[in-house]
Amino acid sequence: MSTTAPSSARKTSTTTDLALIATFAALIAVCSVSAALPIGLNGVPITLQVFGVFLAGAVLGMKRGFFAVLLYLAVGAAGLPIFAGGSSGIAPFSGPTSGYLVSFPIAAALIGFIVERARHQGLAVTAVIVAVAGVIGEVVVYAFGALGFIAFASMTTNAAFKGALTYVPADLIKIVAVALVAAAVHRAFPALLAKRG
After folding, report:
1. Structural domain range at position 62
2. pLDDT one-digit tens code per residue, 113-165
3. Measured on CA atoms in the order 98, 138, 140, 194, is the torsion positive or negative?
4. Residue 155 maps to which CATH number?
5. 7 in helix, strand or coil?
6. What does 118-166 look like in DSSP terms, one character per residue?
């Protein structure tokens, strides 16, 4: 009894983790191909992709958020058209937008790391913490995104970072939405990150 119960609990925990990772990878995919507006730097579309990536980190925590985004990238690289604009395969990882793709798991992990260490602070406080984590994650995304354009589109540093500013208003709205949703989820399911901090 004493050895079976912990083993069963570990299996249940692993199964739950895998289900959450797969669910959020699917959510990111849906966010990436829906409501795309082809504006911004070199026609890079504005989508809900960042919302999905940040929400994965804010809700699942550092490790599971990281793996959810990694799974999304792996499925897209394997050929499913789930990247922004319906693209897929290896080509997006060797083009101007590669920096954004590379940044996503890092940003999700960073946001998850911050949220794990500040959970259970009440709805309002948690929302503020998630929003701050989101802004930090956005800086990471912009930095990597700019590097991608500098490396693969022969852009100057100034031009790359100025182009990224096009996305700031929309991304701030997404960060607020992530903060509200994540705070509500953690309030409803306080044990979601109970063993992740």
Report:
1. 4-188
2. 999 987 666 777 889 999 999 999 999 999 999 999 999 988 999 998 888 88
3. negative
4. 1.10.1760.20
5. helix
6. T-SS-HHHHHHHHHHHHHHHHHHHHHHHHHHHHHHS---HHHHHHHHGG
Report if residue 155 sits inside a domain: yes
This prediction's pTM: 0.89
- What is the dihedral angle through the alpha carbons of 141, 145, 148, 153, rounded to the nearest 10 degrees? 180
CA separation for the pair 89, 12 (Å, rounded): 33
Enclosing H/E stretch for 83: none
- Does 194 map to a domain? no
Is the separation of the CB atoms in 54 and 175 below 8 Å? Answer: yes
Other C-beta atoms lying within 10 Å of the C-beta of residue 31: 22
Residue 133's nearest CA partner among 192, 183, 82 is: 183
